[in-house]
């Protein structure tokens, strides 16, 4: 029983990170139909930036803010330089294109930070043990960040007019343009959001999972699976999908074999797509 | 396959024959890699260009081929060719298992699943003792055939060149074949291609499996050339490289795989030389920067790849209006006799469609018999097109049954409807944009011809059939008076002629039942009369025709029976004279008038 | 006030509009008729910037708006209420209306009130997601959303499409009320309804305006009668 709880706790934390990345996928895909394979790189880059900023003597919080700001700027630059110039964007094109972006980003990170992994120093707070289950302070930070950022994104889409304008672009792009909402601006904002959520995932996980140039790929794939679990169009679904995937992975790693951890996402992806191509979360907004 | 292809292959063969003789060994070595990767990229090009799908983990199939070959040859002493067959087969099997569930879904899922497969495979070969873990499998011998040992770059290049050429030739054959034509149609308009009987899923799966086969074969040659297979064969950067080759060469063309491979390999080599000079101490993998940036630049600036660039250099050439002979006495393909006049062809029972809370079509039942024209009329938004979409399999009904020629087709794909002997046209035209008028109509012959992937690849066996397809397509164009436009690009035709072309395309299927969605729309008076005459002739031949039409005058003079839909319900169904007098019909049409009279 | 000169447009290689000249006076309500495929929707999509014209000009209040992207055209004062309504289904009626005022947020609250007076049926639906409205209510919402920007010109594509006669009556009554407040270009299959409210009627055929006149003049035209007013039934 303690084992089970232990796995679930670890899974929740990991799932929180997946959820944040999944939100980024949803944010971009909903507005422009682009699958952004560089999503995981946002997290890797943010972790590495934060490590460098902290290494340069900045206190933790400013270091984190710098990292998030840098990645958001990178995300926006990507939208401007790589996404917008393409005249006929299909999902297929977007995959190839963002794969190129992701590859270039990876290599830049490799150039700057080298091949080895780095770890950001842990956030303040002490680890605790509840009912025989040890919980690391960092895991709580991850969950808090997921709740905070996820909640903020949700609030933005549900409660603000600008968020609703983005939803309008996603549901009826033609009608949105006809009332004066610019799809190009919407796309830019969606990349900004994806940059921020990805970056937050990267900095909060760095102290326990470490950051390196190559973590983005698997992280991105997991985030995509999580987003797909949630139907690819729903923030709520993305969060639930992320948590679910994290827990499932840790249960399999704990009870079956550690090596199989990465296979779980893949198997889950196929199983879910077969059973419910629309995702696990039922959402009323039909995007045709 | 065109004559120019054979010329190109012959020219390439000559170049390949002398290449190792005239360039330094170091460059021949790069050439060998280029050939290995070209072989892999040919499959990827087919997958992306024809099936409109992308694999982000093609290195997985490559690695499956390489590892299988290595293990079979070094551990079990299996002869090379037999091992190669097993290696390629295993790669194809893996693709089948992944494609079977995922290719039914749209777009990006295959891409992500292959990416996942790549990661899983890379992790597994790294972990498993069976695959030699991190060190991999070594000691793979250089191939030896007929006492000749292929161990130098020159020899290996000569060994591979013919295989790559054959691979290209087969791929070209497929692109030009019935299958290639059907898949290209799917990329232009999936719903139209399906309605002509193209089983999109099946064809895509075949192409995906084939592309994995090419990758597997690439892996086999890779294993023998390196003598060792390590986890790096499955590494993600390999997948990126394959993708880059295909995209750089040009997605629409298999030749691009070859040019792309040579370009990327030389680029790779150059970057290996230059980047350490530019950035001291940079690791070898930094060439990924270059790959990434080149990939982005190509998609943004040169979506057609090198192939497009070279084409742009030369004058832009549209296929000229090729004179097409109408068949030179080819035997007319005969099909089973039409159903007997008056026998029931289409039965619709309780057809209902709800969108959210709105009932678009409400419990519609009707039947259509061979040799009659049934018109479906009603105010805009009454549910006519929704009805058509459900009958033809484009839309799944909420409830109700559709039976065509005794086959239940409701809720199944449009190609099932087509196979049952029925097809349709579209209100908003669904033209296959990338082909000629003749090419469009040839897709209509899909179900009346049989050459599959294999026969298409081999070209020659499919020749006679291709001639028959062309002849039949020309006859259909003749029937609608479009024969002189056969060689024009379909999108260049004016609206009215595109509409007629769609009808010719549907006729090419020789359907028992033809559904026409507003065939008269956008046609001039004379064109309408011609079309009406054509429809009467088809009825004489025993075809059943259902049409949605706004031109009420045309409908009443043409149709044997008229079905009237209002607000999703069938309010009348009978001979025109009867329907004209029906109080419910009068109310439905005139009611609008009564209400706005203020 | 609003005019096009020699407007040509279409899709890729396919030219649908082959030189459209039309001109609307301030406050005029003009109905545009034509068979399916005549190019009516293409015309609306071109003037509102969803399609780039191949050639010709579009002028609104003397300003050339031809070739501007749709969001700029909207800000310039032309509201296009598209075919099939296209309301934002997951957003509430209030949100749909509020977004309608995207280009002029200042008058938002006041204009929502104005719209609810014009279409009282929307008042009971304010908090409901637009996707759950009936077809008629969605059409009203789409028109109201377009009006929220206080456009100078309103172009409407088939507002009666698929609606019950009673609802069509309500919508046309609202249009009659808007008449003379702003300039309206109305594409309509329901010719009888259109004839009742229009100041002038244009007929389009294969990419050109082929006839123009007052409803009274055109109603007597034998061709029009046969094609649009349904002699058969």
From TrEMBL, chain A:
GO MF annotation list: transmembrane transporter activity
Gene Ontology terms: cellular component: plasma membrane
UniProt keyword annotations, A-Z: Amino-acid transport, Cell membrane, Membrane, Transmembrane, Transmembrane helix, Transport
Signal peptide: none
Membrane topology: Multi-pass membrane protein
Cross-referenced Pfam families: BPD_transp_2 (PF02653)
CDD domains: TM_PBP1_LivH_like (cd06582)
Domain of life the protein comes from: Bacteria
Subcellular location: Cell membrane
Gene Ontology BP, a term: amino acid transport
Ranges that cross the membrane: 15-35, 42-58, 95-114, 140-157, 186-209, 263-281
PANTHER family, sorted: ABC TRANSPORTER PERMEASE PROTEIN, BRANCHED-CHAIN AMINO ACID TRANSPORT SYSTEM PERMEASE PROTEIN LIVH
Family under the similarity heading: Belongs to the binding-protein-dependent transport system permease family. LivHM subfamily.
Name of the protein in its database record: Branched-chain amino acid ABC transporter permease
Organism of origin: Actinomadura rubrobrunea
Origin organism lineage: Bacteria, Bacillati, Actinomycetota, Actinomycetes, Streptosporangiales
Automatic annotation (TrEMBL), chain B:
Membrane-crossing segments per the record: 30-52, 59-78, 84-102, 109-125, 156-175, 205-223, 243-267, 288-306
Keyword 4Fe-4S: no
Compartment annotation: Cell membrane
Region (Disordered): 322-343
Keyword vocabulary terms for this entry: ATP-binding, Cell membrane, Hydrolase, Membrane, Nucleotide-binding, Transmembrane, Transmembrane helix, Transport
SUPFAM superfamilies reported in the protein's UniProt record: P-loop containing nucleoside triphosphate hydrolases (SSF52540)
Residues in ABC transporter domain copies: 346-592
A cellular component annotation (GO) from this entry: plasma membrane
Compositional bias per record (Basic and acidic residues), positions renumbered to this chain: 331-341
Pfam families membership: ABC_tran, BCA_ABC_TP_C, BPD_transp_2
Primary location group: membrane
Record flagged with keyword ATP-binding: yes
Alphabetical GO biological process terms: D-alanine transmembrane transport; L-alanine transport; L-isoleucine import across plasma membrane; L-valine import across plasma membrane
GO function terms (MF aspect): ATP binding; ATP hydrolysis activity; L-isoleucine transmembrane transporter activity; L-phenylalanine transmembrane transporter activity; L-valine transmembrane transporter activity
Official protein name in the record: Metal-dependent hydrolase
From TrEMBL, chain C:
Domain of life: Bacteria
Molecular function per GO: ATP binding; ATP hydrolysis activity; branched-chain amino acid transmembrane transporter activity
InterPro entries: AAA+_ATPase, ABC_transporter-like_ATP-bd, ABC_transporter-like_CS, BCAA_Transport_ATP-bd_LivF, P-loop_NTPase
Gene Ontology biological process terms in this record: L-amino acid transport
Pfam annotation, one family: ABC_tran
CDD domains noted in UniProt: ABC_TM1139_LivF_branched
ABC transporter domain ranges (all copies): 2-231
UniProt entry keywords in alphabetical sequence: Amino-acid transport, ATP-binding, Nucleotide-binding, Transport
Family: Belongs to the ABC transporter superfamily.
Name of the featured protein: ABC transporter ATP-binding protein
Organism encoding this protein: Actinomadura rubrobrunea
